[in-house]
């Protein structure tokens, strides 16, 4: 059974953040934070190819450098746990992508990935379609896949070259998502954080960021499955505050990513009007945060803070 979340502080930590493994993390929690910390978000502890855990090779084991699932579950005996699931992508070093490069169309995982030649009408995007994409890079989001037979194709890649996007419209990817979510629930997850969730759905000609209605269908599918297991989900979305508000309106937990910059602005300037306005209008069904492993998101305060004041902070 999952732990009922309480009002105590949630500790957010990398498995290796104390220069220690999961057993030592539990010892530190029990010794120094037992009465203060009610939940623990252990940032990705799976074997990973890049981005300090956010490019998982597999979800079927804990990175041996940190310990085992037994160690994770031991922490969860007294505290509720949050796990990360990177719905949008998986490591280029995963068995799925390596098999795809080796066998191409004959691979069991060929439908896992988004090949430009199959995704775009005509086999490649127009400049107008590239311009429409909400990008993390100053060009179309792809890497060149070099297959064992000597052929090449562009494969969708939003983030680093090790983080290959998954095709969430594929039945095999949906089965992978279901299986991974169930495994996390089996290993004591109380909350599953959906990292980079807004990038998961791609549509030719669209922004490929929070694409409706498909993104809602995917979120509702995940939520329904986890609700049956007593597990809550937390979509992670850095963007204009109206997007997380739309999630809160549907009953989903969100992050208060606007709070950090607004708080800094109030402290630096002595002017609390923008912070006070936000506190009056923001949803209460959210995780309060003053910092994240990604730093502070400036995009989250757009239209909540005048641009000149954002620049000032």
Describe this structure in words.
This protein is of the alpha/beta class and 313 residues long. Helix content is 32%, strand content 16%. The chain contains 11 helices and 11 strands. The chain has helices at residues 22-32, 69-75, 95-103, 116-119, 127-132, 171-186, 214-227, 242-249, 259-269, 273-281, 307-312, and strands spanning 9-14, 37-43, 80-85, 89-91, 142-146, 152-156, 163-165, 189-194, 232-235, 254-256, 286-288. The strands form 4 sheets. The protein has a 5-stranded parallel β-sheet, covered by helices on one side. A two-stranded antiparallel ribbon has the order 4-7. Helix 1 (22-32) packs parallel to helix 2 (69-75) and helix 9 packs antiparallel against helix 10 (273-281). The radius of gyration is 20 Å and the shape is globular. The termini are far apart.
Number of strands: 11
Query: Which sequence of strands runs across the widest sheet?
Result: 1-2-3-8-9
Uncertain spans: none
Helix segment count? 11
**pLDDT average, as an integer?**
93
Silhouette:
globular
The helix/strand series, from N terminus to C terminus, equals EHEHEEHHHEEEHEHEHEHHEH
- Helix and strand content put the structural class at alpha/beta
Helix content: 25-40%
Multimerization state? single chain
Largest sheet entry: 5 strands, parallel
What is the distance, rounded to the nearest whole angstrom, between the alpha carbons of the first and last residues?
44 Å
Quick structural overview:
The chain has eleven helices and eleven strands. The chain is of the alpha/beta class and 313 residues long.
């Amino acid at each position: 059974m999952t732990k009922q979340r309480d009002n105590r502080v949630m500790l957010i930590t990398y498995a290796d953040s104390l220069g220690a493994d999961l057993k030592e993390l539990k010892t530190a929690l029990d010794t120094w934070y037992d009465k203060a910390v009610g939940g623990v978000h252990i940032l990705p502890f799976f074997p990973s190819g890049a981005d300090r855990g956010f490019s998982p090779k597999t979800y079927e084991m804990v990175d041996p450098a940190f310990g085992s699932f037994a160690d994770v579950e031991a922490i969860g005996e007294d505290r509720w746990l949050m796990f990360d699931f990177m719905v949008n992508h998986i490591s280029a070093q995963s068995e799925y992508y390596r098999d795809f490069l080796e066998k191409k169309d004959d691979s069991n995982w060929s439908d896992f990935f988004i090949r430009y030649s199959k995704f775009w009408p005509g086999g490649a995007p127009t400049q107008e379609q590239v311009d429409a994409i909400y990008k993390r890079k100053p060009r179309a989001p792809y890497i060149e896949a070099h297959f064992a037979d000597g052929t090449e194709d562009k494969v969708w890649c939003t983030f680093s070259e090790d983080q290959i996007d998954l095709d969430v419209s594929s039945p095999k990817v949906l089965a992978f998502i279901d299986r991974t979510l169930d495994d996390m629930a089996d290993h004591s997850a109380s909350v599953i954080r959906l990292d980079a969730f807004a990038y998961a759905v791609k549509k030719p000609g669209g922004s490929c960021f929070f694409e409706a209605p498909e993104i809602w269908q995917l979120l509702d599918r995940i939520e329904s499955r986890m609700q049956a297991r007593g597990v809550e989900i937390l979509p992670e979305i850095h963007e204009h505050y109206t997007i997380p508000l739309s999630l809160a309106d549907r009953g989903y937990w969100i992050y208060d990513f606007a709070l950090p910059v607004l708080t800094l602005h109030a402290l630096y300037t002595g002017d609390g009007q923008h912070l006070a306005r936000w506190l009056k209008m923001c949803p209460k069904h959210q995780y309060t945060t003053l910092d994240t492993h990604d730093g502070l998101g400036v995009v989250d305060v757009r239209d909540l803070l005048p641009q000149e004041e954002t620049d000032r902070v």
